[in-house]
Amino acid sequence: MEKDILIQEINRLRKEKNAVILAHYYQEKDIQDIADFVGDSLELSKKAAATSADMIVFAGVHFMAETAKILNPEKTVVLPDLNAGCSLADGCKAEDFIKWKAQYPGHKVVTYINCSADIKTLSDVVCTSSNAKKIIESFPQDQPILFAPDRNLGKYLQNETNRDLVLWDGSCIVHEAFSLDKLIALYKEYPKAKIVAHPESETQILKVAHYIGSTSGMLNYIVSSDAEIFIVATEAGILHKLAQDAPGKTLIPAPAYEDNTCACSECAFMKLNTLEKLYRCMKYGYPEIKVSEETRLKALVPIQRMLELS
Ligand code: 13P
Ligand code: SF4
């Protein structure tokens, strides 16, 4: 189907089905442009919690749509491509997590929202990159804490909060692919540039960053900064919104290792969603996200704790 017809049809279905389209910044630009709201993981969860729509079309990855379903059991939540996973969520299986957790009695469990509903049921509180520091600091300084599944975000939080967190060994395939040598070479070409990085990036990248934050945090920093040139160490999809919100600024994607399976800084999972698939999932109400009521009720507790603390 032609793009303009697809957009017309999506708009028609949006009214007919009383649907809201929520998109993450890492979605392709056509999807961002037709979305009702584009945001970071925390903002998207808040929008999902507050919506009065009957259908939530989640243009993001599975754990995001699943979180929306946990918050809205009575609504239809659809994801354009059910295979849109996440290396962090996929690398943290409940059976392994249960064994890991059992080794650390007396520890509270803080999990990054990039994990499955099953992992959330085993957590005390969920966090996103924009509220993780606040969530960790909500516990007494001497409270032992397990943090999963992102070890890079965990190391960053250890440093920021001056706490010795026990870390699960997971990572994001996109953010671990940035090359420090290439980044330094690029910075030498643009010495006036500010380097902005997502905390899922490795410690060596974060050490040279001028600003570290969630996708919305990076966007706000760039829009409000007096600097003109930015090297952006996160998934390249955010450059679309950045170009719209910070016109005239020079935005350079941080370079990735050439020999990495992900030689560009694109998330293959996020990019599985297309405008065509989005139209189809609205039309057929499929693929639909389902969560058993038992799992949902348990997973809801740490998500609600996060929303209360945010
Ligand atoms: P935020 O948008 O919360 O910064 O998360 C980035 C990410 O990797 C989502 O998968
Ligand atoms: Fe997961 Fe990384 Fe893709 Fe985000 S960018 S969905 S953390 S693999």
TrEMBL record:
<dbReference type="Pfam" id="PF02445">
    <property type="entry name" value="NadA"/>
</dbReference>
<dbReference type="InterPro" id="IPR003473">
    <property type="entry name" value="NadA"/>
</dbReference>
<dbReference type="GO" id="GO:0016740">
    <property type="term" value="F:transferase activity"/>
</dbReference>
<feature type="binding site">
    <location>
        <position position="41"/>
    </location>
    <ligand>
        <name>iminosuccinate</name>
    </ligand>
</feature>
<keyword id="KW-0479">Metal-binding</keyword>
<keyword id="KW-0808">Transferase</keyword>
<comment type="pathway">
    <text>Cofactor biosynthesis; NAD(+) biosynthesis; quinolinate from iminoaspartate: step 1/1.</text>
</comment>
<keyword id="KW-0004">4Fe-4S</keyword>
<feature type="binding site">
    <location>
        <position position="24"/>
    </location>
    <ligand>
        <name>iminosuccinate</name>
    </ligand>
</feature>
<dbReference type="InterPro" id="IPR023066">
    <property type="entry name" value="Quinolinate_synth_type2"/>
</dbReference>
<feature type="binding site">
    <location>
        <begin position="198"/>
        <end position="200"/>
    </location>
    <ligand>
        <name>iminosuccinate</name>
    </ligand>
</feature>
<comment type="similarity">
    <text>Belongs to the quinolinate synthase family. Type 2 subfamily.</text>
</comment>
<feature type="binding site">
    <location>
        <begin position="112"/>
        <end position="114"/>
    </location>
    <ligand>
        <name>iminosuccinate</name>
    </ligand>
</feature>
<feature type="binding site">
    <location>
        <position position="172"/>
    </location>
    <ligand>
        <name>[4Fe-4S] cluster</name>
    </ligand>
</feature>
<feature type="binding site">
    <location>
        <position position="267"/>
    </location>
    <ligand>
        <name>[4Fe-4S] cluster</name>
    </ligand>
</feature>
<keyword id="KW-0662">Pyridine nucleotide biosynthesis</keyword>
<dbReference type="InterPro" id="IPR036094">
    <property type="entry name" value="NadA_sf"/>
</dbReference>
<keyword id="KW-0411">Iron-sulfur</keyword>
<keyword id="KW-0408">Iron</keyword>
<feature type="binding site">
    <location>
        <position position="86"/>
    </location>
    <ligand>
        <name>[4Fe-4S] cluster</name>
    </ligand>
</feature>
<keyword id="KW-0963">Cytoplasm</keyword>
<protein>
    <recommendedName>
        <fullName>Quinolinate synthase</fullName>
        <ecNumber>2.5.1.72</ecNumber>
    </recommendedName>
</protein>
<comment type="function">
    <text>Catalyzes the condensation of iminoaspartate with dihydroxyacetone phosphate to form quinolinate.</text>
</comment>
<feature type="binding site">
    <location>
        <position position="215"/>
    </location>
    <ligand>
        <name>iminosuccinate</name>
    </ligand>
</feature>
<feature type="binding site">
    <location>
        <position position="129"/>
    </location>
    <ligand>
        <name>iminosuccinate</name>
    </ligand>
</feature>
